Amino acid sequence: MRKVLFFVLLAAALGGCDTTVKKSEVESVDYGPRPQHFQAAVRDYLKIRLTDPAGAIVEFRAGPQQLFQRETPLRKTQWGWALCVWVNDKNRQGAFEGFYPMTVMIRNEKIEHVNGGPDDDNLVGNRYAREQCEQLGAPFKK
C-alpha cells in the first residue's frame, strides 16, 4: 500500500511540474559558443559509467541546440547546448539491454548536466530525457 501511495504522489508531483519555458528565460542566460568536441565529451563521460563502453552503441540523434530547462520542484535550472543521445549498453551477461535516451547539456566544451543516462536512471531523469529529445527533434519511442 505504501508503494502505491508513493507512486501516486510521485505521479502527481511530476504532472504538476510546468516545464514550459518563456522566451525571456531562454534569452537571459549565456550559452557560450557552440561546442565543437561534443561527441568526444559524451563518449568520455560514458566511458567510466557504462558496463561495456567499447561495445556500447552510442547514437547522437539531435543537437547541439540551445536548450533551457526551467527550475521545478524536482530539478534545478539548467541550460546549454543540448544533445539527444541514445545509448544501448550491454549488461553483465554481455547482452544488449535496449536503447535509452539521455540529454546532455554542454557549456564551454564542458558537460554541465545530464538527464537520463547511467547516473540519472530514474523516473524523473528518464522523463526529462524523453521530453527534451522530443524538443530537439529526436522523439524516443520504445
Count of beta strands: 4
Number of domains: 1
Helix content: 25-40%
Low-confidence stretches: 4-16
Largest sheet: 4 strands, antiparallel
Derived from helix and strand composition plus strand pairing, the structural class reads alpha+beta
Total helical elements:
4
Q: Shape from CA axes?
A: globular
* Mean pLDDT over all positions: 85
Describe the structure.
The protein is of the alpha+beta class and 142 residues long. The two termini are 29 Å apart. It is globular and about 45 Å long. Strand 3 (100-107) and strand 4 (110-116) form a beta hairpin. It is built from four helices and four strands, in the order H-H-H-E-E-E-E-H. The protein has a four-stranded antiparallel sheet. The protein has one domain (19-136). It has helices at 2-15, 23-27, 38-47, 123-136, and strands at residues 57-69, 78-88, 100-107, 110-116. The longest helix is centred in the N-terminal third of the chain and has 14 residues, at 2-15.
